[in-house]
Design goal:
- The chain is of the alpha/beta class and 302 residues long.
- It folds into 2 domains: 2-111, Rossmann fold; 130-301, P-loop containing nucleotide triphosphate hydrolases (Rossmann fold, 3-Layer(aba) Sandwich).
- The chain is built from 12 helices and 12 strands.
- It has an 8-stranded mixed β-sheet with strand order 7-8-6-9-10-5-11-12, sandwiched between helices. Strands 1-2 form a two-stranded parallel ribbon. It has a two-stranded parallel sheet with strand order 3-4.
- Helix 10 links the parallel strand 9 (223-228) and strand 10.
- The longest helix has 13 residues, at 164-176.
Length: 302
């Protein structure tokens, strides 16, 4: 949806069809029937339309595979292959990816001819204008620590959790404590996700609780603080989550909650990304923060 919106802002008089799941089919099918020059699509819905003969792709000259690594992680590789088989062999193909692992190399081998690799910026490193910090905390004290940070810091928060149930539970508990919170995860409809993101972007809720479905592509300028409530599985997930704050030249803070048995996972992320994360401990007697840097501990304790 953001790609389609940006395309409309950058062009005039070029027809575009948005083809995605979770939204009404009528406007999408009508846009296709009018003869859209550009189709911006998710693989599942596009393949559905191909199977129902609602779209023809034999005239496509350019194929763009955006966020290839994420699509492969989500299991879209077979759908991408079936869609590509419907396209002319003589075309230009562009792949955009944050990583270049063996799966991505296989896509490049299968779909690109004489490819040129262009690398822009550091593909696996948080922006330097984001302050990175980690808190060692027991599972039962995570919510209290989050509430403490919300009271100590200004601005809006995105809180990343591992599961859909966890997102609902944390958002509900925040709301019960008087903190307005929106939520985004895979069990919510596209309309619910749009509403939650729009409400958060407009400042109606201070907190957005989300699974990794929101770790990429969400561009809300005013996010002051990202919280990894649950540790990310991979270093690249850490980078994408952290990238929701500190947009452009703005400053941002990224806090990661680590349970005692996750300290090794945090060190692994530091090694892989060649970064250093400031560490703090949460005392078991009431959630008072103790850290190697006294000035930061004092700031959070006040």
């Amino acid at each position: 949806m953001q790609v389609e919106k940006a395309f409309r802002q950058l062009t005039t008089g070029v027809s575009v069809a948005l083809v995605v799941g979770g939204m009404a089919e009528g406007p999408q099918i009508e846009a296709l029937r009018r003869g859209a020059r550009l189709i911006v699509a998710t693989p599942g819905r596009l393949e559905d339309y191909i199977g129902r003969k609602l779209v023809r792709l034999d005239g496509v000259r350019i194929l763009v595979l955006d966020e290839v690594d994420r699509m492969l992680d989500m299991g879209f590789k077979p759908a991408i292959r079936r869609i590509a088989d419907c396209l002319p062999k003589d075309r230009q193909t562009l792949c955009y990816s944050a990583t270049l692992d063996s799966q991505i190399k296989e896509v490049v081998r299968d779909y690109l001819k004489s490819p040129v690799r262009i690398e822009i910026g550091s593909v696996l490193k948080p922006a330097e204008n984001v302050e990175l910090q980690a808190f060692e905390v027991d599972a039962d004290s995570k919510l209290e620590l989050l509430q403490h940070l919300l009271g100590a810091e200004q601005g809006s928060f995105i809180v990343f959790v591992r599961t859909k149930h966890g997102a609902d539970r944390i958002a509900t508990r925040l709301e019960r404590s008087g903190i307005e919170a929106a939520r985004i995860h895979g069990d919510r409809t596209q309309a619910q996700r749009n509403s939650a993101l729009r409400s958060f972007a407009q400042g109606h809720q201070r907190v957005l609780v989300a699974t990794d479905v929101a770790a990429r592509g969400i561009d809300v300028a005013h996010v002051a603080h990202v919280v990894n409530y649950d540790m990310p599985k991979e270093a690249e997930d850490f980078v994408h989550r952290v990238g929701r704050t500190g947009r452009m030249t703005a400053r941002g803070i990224a806090s990661t909650f680590t349970m005692p048995n996750e300290k090794g996972d945090l060190r692994k992320i530091e090694r892989q990304l060649n970064i250093k994360i400031k560490r703090f401990r949460v005392r078991p007697n009431g959630g008072i923060l103790a850290a190697p840097a006294p000035d930061r501990a004092a700031q959070l304790a006040n």
